[in-house]
Amino acid sequence: MASHIVGYPRMGPKRELKFALESFWDKKSSAEDLQKVAADLRSSIWKQMSDAGIKYIPSNTFSYYDQVLDATSMLGAVPPRYGWSGGEIGFDTYFSMARGNASVPAMEMTKWFDTNYHFIVPELGPDVNFSYASHKAVDEYKKAKALGVNTVPVLIGPVSYLLLSKPAKGVDKTFSLLSLLPKILPIYKEVISDLKAAGASWIQFDEPTLVLDLDSHKLQAFTAAYDDLESTLSGLNVLIETYFADLTAEAYKTLIGLKGVTAYGLDLVRGAQTLDLVKSNFPKGKYLFAGVVDGRNIWANDLAASLSTLKELEAVVGKENLVVSTSCSLLHTAVDLVNETKLDDEIKLWLAFAAQKVVEVNALAKALAGQKDEAFFSANAAAQASRKSSPRVTNEAVQKAAAALKGSDHRRATNVSARLDAQQKKLDLPILPTTTIGSFPQTLELRRVRREFKANKISEDDYIKAIKEEIKKVVDLQEELDIDVLVHGEPERNDMVEYFGEQLSGFAFTVNGWVQSYGSRCVKPPIIYGDVSRPKPMTVFWSSTAQSMTARPMKGMLTGPVTILNWSFVRNDQPRFETCYQIALAIKDEVEDLEKAGINVIQIDEAALREGLPLRKSEHAFYLKWAVHSFRITNCGVQDTTQIHTHMCYSNFNDIIHSIIDMDADVITIENSRSDEKLLSVFREGVKYGAGIGPGVYDIHSPRIPSTEEIADRINKMLAVLETNILWVNPDCGLKTRKYAEVKPALNNMVAAAKLLRTQLASAK
C-alpha cells in the first residue's frame, strides 16, 4: 500500500527560509547564500519523507514566494512594467513582481482559496508572449534524483492557473482568460518533455479550482486542456490533485473523464461528500489518492476512523490502486511537534504537525497492507479518548452564555447616520480624516525586548517602561505627521491573533508553530482546544496609556472574533460558529471596558472575514449570517458617540459587500490599492454605502514610497464614487512589516495628499 504527501511547509522548522529571504532583500547576503539555505531545506524535506517511507514524494512545491508566481515565471508571463527582456527569470524580476521595487508597484496579492496563505495574481491579456522562462520544476526534480529520491514533480494545472488570473490593466474586464489555453499549453508540453527526459515517472497537476462552482464552459476547458496534453503525457503517470472542498457531480464527472490521467487526488476531510461520488462511480484501473489526513489543521488523525474509510474505498477502487494521502499540502500547518518544548503535555498528545502527519499517512498505508503498528494505533486511540473526556475542554458557563445569544440580531439601537453625527460632534474631525490601520514597524530592538521579557531576562517593570517609550515614539511621530486619529502602534504584540489568544481561556500556544502567510511573512496560529472566555482585560492598560499621551483620538485596537477564529487552528469537535460566538462574547467584554476607560474610537479588525467564506455558493449565506452576527455581538452595547471601526485586507470583497454593510460598523478601512482599486467598482455599479469608509491609498506590502500626487489621484478616484463626508484616508494595512525609513515619507505624503484635497474641495465650494 502506497503513501503520498501533496506538499510540505517551506519555511523550515525554525523559519530558516524567512530569515534568508529577508537578509537577501536587505542586501546583507548573496543570492548564493539564499540558494544554499533553500537547497538544504529541500534536501532535508525529501530525506524526511523518504525515511518515513512515503512512496510519492512531491518536488517543486518549495517556493521563494508562492507557487502561482512560480508558474507565472515558468510561463514567462511577466508584466511589461518590470522590464524583463527574456531569458531565465532571476531573483530581481521574480521579487519585483512579488514585492514591487523603487519604481514600479507589485502585482496584486490575494488569498489562496479560503486559507490565510496568499498568492500573487497573474496579470494576463491577449498580447502576453508566453515563453519557457523558469526551469525550476525540472531543476528541483534533478536535484532530488541526485540525492537518491525519485520525486513527483508538482505543477499548478493550466486551467487553474488561468482561472486564478485576472485581466491585466488596460485589458477589457470581459476578456476570456481561458482563451489563452492554446498559448500556455505549448510551454507545459516543454516542461513535461523535460521532466520525462530527466527520468520522471509521475507528474502531479494541482487543479484546485475544480472544487469551485464552475459552469460547463469552464469544466470543458479541463477536458480540452488534457486532451491537448495527452500525447505529451504518454509514458507518464499523471495525478490530478484537488483540495479544500467537495467536487460537484459535474466536476467529478469531468475529472474522471480527463484523458491521459492515471490518478485522482481528493480531499476527503473538507470534501467528505466526494466519498459518495467515488463509491458510486470510480473508473476501473485508476488510482485514488485518498486525502484522509487533514493538511489544514493540527489535530492528530483519528486513525481508526480513517482506516475504516480507507477499507471502504479499498473495496471500490482495489487494493493496489488506493494511495493514502494528505487532504491538501501540509503548507497550511506547522512543521514539527518535536520543536514544542513548552506545550502542555496533555494537549500535545492531541496534536500532529506536518512531520507527524507524514508518519500518520505512512502508518495508515502500512495498516492497509497488513502491517499495522498496534502500539501506534493504541496510543492514538488513547489520545482521542483523552481529548473527548478532558474537563479543560468544556466550560458550562461559556456554553450557556453562547446559547443565550439565539433570538437577537444584536444591532446597535441607532442607525449609522445618526451615530456618525453624534461621533463627529464629539471627535471634531476634518473632512478626509487620516489614520493608520494599527501596527507600526516592529524594530529589532522591540522584538528583542519582547523576547527577553518572555524568557524572564528582564523584569516586568523594565518591559512596561520599554513598551511605553515605544508607544510615546509612535504617538509623537503621528502628531508630527499631523495624523488625525492615532494608534499606539501595537509594540506589545508580535501577532494580532496570538496576542489575544494568549489572554483568552481555551487557547494553547506554540513556540515554533509557524505557518507561512506570504513571502517571508509567517504567523503562529493559536490552538483553540476548548471553550473560550476572557479572564481579565487585555488591551485597556496599553490603550489608556497611549490616550494619556495625546489630546487626539486614540484607537483601541482589537482583533474580531471571525478573524481570531479563521487565523487559529480551531477545535474540530463542535461547529465553527459556536466557537466564534464564544470569542465574540469575550471581545464584547473588552470593547465595553475600553469604552469605560475613555477610548472613543475602537477598531475591531475582521481582516479574515472574507477568507472564511466557503468555496461553494450554496454555503455562503449561512456562513455570512453567523460571521456578521458575531461581529455585531462585540459592539452592540456601546454608546452612539463611540466610533466602531473595522478593517479588512487582501481578499475579493465585491461579492460580499452587502454583508460588509450589514456588519453595521461606523467606519471600515479596506485594502484597495494593490488590487487596482477593484473595490471602487462596487460603488460605481450603484451600491450605496452610508458609513465611513477608508479604501487603502497605498500598498504597505511593498517597500515602494508613493508620491503625494499618486495618493491624491487615488483619493480623487474614490471621491468620484463616494461622498466626501464618509471618506477616510489610510494605508491598505498595518505597518509592522515595513521600516521607519519607508513609513515616515509614505505617511507624510498621505497626509499631504489629504490636505491638498481638503484645500481643493474648500475652494470648489
UniProtKB/TrEMBL annotation:
Keyword Amino-acid biosynthesis attributed: yes
Keyword set, alphabetical order: Amino-acid biosynthesis, Metal-binding, Methionine biosynthesis, Methyltransferase, Transferase, Zinc
Domain of life the protein comes from: Eukaryota
UniProt catalytic activity: 5-methyltetrahydropteroyltri-L-glutamate + L-homocysteine = tetrahydropteroyltri-L-glutamate + L-methionine
Cross-referenced CDD domains: CIMS_C_terminal_like (cd03311), CIMS_N_terminal_like (cd03312)
Domain Cobalamin-independent methionine synthase MetE C-terminal/archaeal, chain residue ranges per copy: 432-755
SUPFAM superfamilies: UROD/MetE-like (SSF51726)
Functional pathway: Amino-acid biosynthesis; L-methionine biosynthesis via de novo pathway; L-methionine from L-homocysteine (MetE route): step 1/1
Domain Cobalamin-independent methionine synthase MetE N-terminal: 3-316
HAMAP family on file: Meth_synth
Family recorded in the similarity comment: Belongs to the vitamin-B12 independent methionine synthase family.
PANTHER family found in the cross-reference section: 5-METHYLTETRAHYDROPTEROYLTRIGLUTAMATE--HOMOCYSTEINE METHYLTRANSFERASE
Function: Catalyzes the transfer of a methyl group from 5-methyltetrahydrofolate to homocysteine resulting in methionine formation.
NCBIfam families, per the entry: met_syn_B12ind, PRK05222.1
Protein's UniProt name: 5-methyltetrahydropteroyltriglutamate--homocysteine S-methyltransferase
Lineage summary: Eukaryota, Viridiplantae, Streptophyta, Embryophyta, Tracheophyta
